[in-house]
Write a structure and sequence with these properties.
single chain, alpha+beta, Butyryl-CoA Dehydrogenase, subunit A, domain 3, five-stranded mixed beta sheet, two-stranded antiparallel ribbon, 7 strands, 55% helix
Amino acid sequence: MRFVLEAEQQDMADTLRSVFTAADVPGIAHAWSGGDAEGWRKLWQSLADLGVTGVTLPEERGGLGLGPVELTLCLQECGYAGLPGPVIESLALLPALLPELTADAAVRTAIVEPHVPRALDADLADEVYACGPGSTRRLTGVSWQRAESFDPARRLFEVRATAGEEVAGAELERAFDLAVLGCAAYLLGLGHRMLDLATEHVMQRQQFGRPVGEFQAVKHHLANALLQLEFARPLVRGAALTAGSAHGGRDASAAKLAAGEAAHLTARTALQVHGAIGYTAEHELHRHLTKTAALRQSWGTPTWHRRRVARSLATDPETPIGSP
């Protein structure tokens, strides 16, 4: 299956890529991991000015009125840049869940039982939500305690609240599936960035008087990583086309599995070709490695998504696989 982006969609991706390149996201991520949100909020405001924070919201609510395909493009570029913060919650989950939400520069995070038990960046968020079957609450009187996280820039918090305001929420399962799809797109972006870093490194590093990238074994490792990423990409695009349909959840799970495994393989390959320098926190690769490991297990573990896909196929084996 081959998906070709329309010119407007490619322009959107290119614009975001240039915004992130100019914004020094590595420096912003380092400050964000220490609780300094100034640079991040300036960048978030820039994204709001472009309409990214309301990409799927209808125009009457201040959004762009675009669909899941454009959402995945935005989150793939966020992943390529390694942008920290609750971007999946703010761009994918809550806009689909809250029918009264309007496009703005507010930072929103959420707990989604049972798959997201801790709120991301709760101390820096403007709004914190608790989402469960049949109930979506905006928490008030919030207190939090920092939890350990594999990724320093992925700041997790145990949240307690003295009260909560019930808000009218749409179907949680559909919003969760959109967040799963967003996570898959983010992982796909992470994978492509790590592959680019690895390719650049092997073309610069010399061994036996030749660039390491000229050796056949290195080429094979990088080609295998690219192949996995290219197989994951149409699954992400296909799941974006079926989002909201009867089989949208199954397709989102398949996309998350494929993108997570492709990013994981690319992370291992990139670390191998970088050598010891890839382990150091000062190198840009390290930031992407830790985020890949964390997101691969977030928004549903690989085991949970495999079981979901298997259950869907076993109970309805005649359903079409992939996009219409």
